[in-house]
Known about the structure:
alpha+beta; globular; single chain; 574 residues; 17 helices; 28 strands
Amino acid sequence: MYRNLAAFLRALEEAGELIRITAPVTPELEIAELTDRQAKQPGGGKALLFENTGTEFPVATNLLGSERRICMALGVERLSDVGWRIDTLFAEAVKPKTSWMDKLRMLPLLGEAARWMPRRLSRRGACQEVVLRGKAADLNRLPVLRCWPHDGGRFVTLPLVHTVDPENGIRNVGMYRMQIFDSHTTGMHWHRHKTGERHYEAYRHRGERMPVTVCLGGDPAYTYCATAPLPDGVDEYLLAGFLRNRPVEMVQCLTNKLWVPADCDFVIEGYVDPAEPKVVEGDFGDHTGFYSLKDLYPRFHVTCITHRKGAIWPATLVGVPPMEDAYIQLATERIFLAPIRLAVAPEVIDLWMPPAGVAHNIAVCVIRKSYPGQAMKVAHALWGAGQMSFNKFLIVLSDEDTAGVSGTGYEAVVRERLHCFDPARDAHFSQGILDVLDHAAPYIGYGGKLCLDLTRKLAEEGGERTRQKSIPIEVVWDDFVEAADLTFDEQVWLAAGNTDPVRDVQITEQGVLRLDARFKPSEVERGWPNVVTMSPEVIEAVDRRWPEYGLGSEPLPSPSRRYLSLVRSHEAKI
């Protein structure tokens, strides 16, 4: 695998997957606009390395923003290769061991797993070649991006946030955005459902400061693992060791007792004091394609910054899909299908989360159906399983309708099966937890869910419905959306984001499933967010400077131009 981020960038460049930009650029909106134009290219475009950022550090963006680059980061030819390794591992681990020889055959497997465990070093790591303490540990030295015009400030967008459970010492590495407040403090965006928030509450009850260390860069496998939906208590660096087939070497921080990968580019050490009042964080242009609005979150205090010589600052941009996070989500689909089969629903054949569904809004599940009501059994199982519990719209298909189909191919199957869809029978409503970023939910993190059972119906379920000429679904739009000429995928993104299944979805007397996808600022107390777009001034400035960037003679079109008509005010909130 890759010893550091620079090694990964060299591999990308050799593979024709990296573009270097030597022209002077600013982390204030300009890098984000250039990244958005590249990320929206077919297949995710190229990774970008900005070498002249007005700071001592270059910035790398869109690193994992294509299927080829996420495969390179994980060291595989195909993402399914990782899933196959996990399938094989689980199959061997759960196989009944009836004889002494069977148990002996498990020893190589145990030895292999031991090689994945993180390994502590007694020396300093490359991530500690340069040490900055006191006033020198200044966050303003770093090329932290301001991504969108109404963002509350500059945000660290690819942080590996290290915390430990004070009760048992088990580590968690999560990816939680960090707004820069001043030279030595940031916000720490821990949602109420996340492990970081659970650790924070544990320290608060104990009346103790919480040590926190943030890393950036290093082996790109770390970045993926920090986003992976691992069960609480499973070390992300064990997964990294499995993916890279060698242990992650760890070094101890200089101002707290946490351990971090030795080969990271940056390490930001510090603490959160739960006795302090939470502070206002946000707004932030988020992966939902809307701004997440201001709220209260803990304050992180920096005690030390270390970095390797020649460090590179990694950053990601999120906004209206598809973007880099769609390919990270694709890896998760392939890698974690085996655990879902084993622990949650063995009848699940495949799972697809279309980019338009921004990970939690829409999922398509394929099952091997053998009894009535099985689609709802699977729906409730998934809605109670880890990060799948945030899902809002779930579509269930039968494997007999999806032979030879995967990924985007499911879209055609769904359209065909909707011709046999009976809303009164096949639409199943529920309620439960939702992602905190779901702006349409009646309450923050809680609202409606809807399962569309598009499986072949058995006799006990009333049998198959005769295929209808039209699909019994309609969407109600605002006039300005009707005039926006959105693509089908853009309509799906907007409809799923703007609707709560219980409040906004009804079955009419004519048997039609109607979704009210209008903007509804009066329906939620916290306010309704604007669609994320770049300002016209920045778009035009980038167009003027285009020949300087070395990206071709004609400017790539700004994706934001398509969505400017959806913006309803001059701030993050409508």
